Amino acid sequence: MTLIKKYTELNIKNLIWIVLIVISLLIKTFLLPVRTGDYIGFLQPWIGFIKSHGYFSSLHYGFYDYTPSYIYILIAITKIGLNPLYSIKIVSIVFEYLAAFFIGKIAFQKVKNNQVIWISLAVIPLLPSILLNSSYLSQCDSIYSAFVMGSIYFIFQRKQFLSVLFLAIAFAFKMQTAFILPFFFVMMLRGNIRWYYFCLIPIIFIISITPTWLYGRPFTDLIKVYIAQTDRFRFLTLNFPNLYIWISNNYYEQVKILGIILTSALTVFTGFWLRRKQIVFSFETWIRLAFLSAIVVPFILPGMHERYMYLGDILGVLYYLVIRKNIHLPIGILLVSFYSYIRCSRFNDILPMAPAFFIYSLIIILTVNDLIKNLKTESNGI
After folding, report:
1. Radius of gyration over alpha carbons of the chain, in Å?
2. DSSP for residue 308
3. Could you say which of 73, 240, 270, 381 is the most buried, measured as most Cβ atoms within 10 Å of its Cβ?
4. Backbone angles phi, psi at 304, to 5 degrees
């Protein structure tokens, strides 16, 4: 009778997660027709340009400010003749679920229960920032995030080549992949990844831009695509509550350089500090570090946009699925992220940045404290 009761309870729990998955799909379907400024001002004109300039022949022109990797997807959508608005959103939604699947698979290594995969598939696509990003705004942050989560999954499977390959593909889509690099830097220093595998990142990037180069776009333009992106919006912060809300944009050039130096120096210092042999890393420690990496880097880097907490949002879910405590940390990050999205609207002049900044700062302090306490516990064998 006890076994039957447990089996029944398990089925009911799985049913709850399946219902939530269905609800998330219904919400996303309802949002498919919504056209926002991101689509009207950028994606729709790009689709029109692709169509009027011979599809792949359009690659000759610099009509976009994304990497070519995403433009190939837009060309495929246009060439096939699918509804561009719906197709763009559906592609991003598919990658949402792929990212959620990888998060569930990573958490499974700790909890050893397949239910955690269903939980991940149910919860992550329903997060406010995730819903807004793909289904409402037609953005594509889910693509690079899915590959980043795949990269983390494969490194825990000790498949170094696949891990860095996925990381390289993520970078070929979005520069925000850099938010997780401190995590991989520590992985390399502690011998979990051989340094030469990271040569895949420039190799995959060059492969990704080669078709565009062959269609006549200057190679130098393609290599500098991320530099061009940072120069397009010359703001220290765009609705993102990091350090730079307190600094005048009049000092953009100087502060931008200092911010990059600060981020690099902190990454190197922290990496070599965590490299020490007396520090013991458990699976939970690595999850803590991944979450911390994704929320600290955007805090100290200039030029951040409102949606740049995407990776931190989903890694917060992974953090709780594995650690099973400190739920206030991922919830706090989700609130900061959602607040940033709200500010990127007609409420921009009404909502101050300071409250989100202080919450964000507190979450980072508490997460750092959690990591240090965990390191002491693991290293002392408690």
Report:
1. 21
2. T
3. 240
4. -80, 145
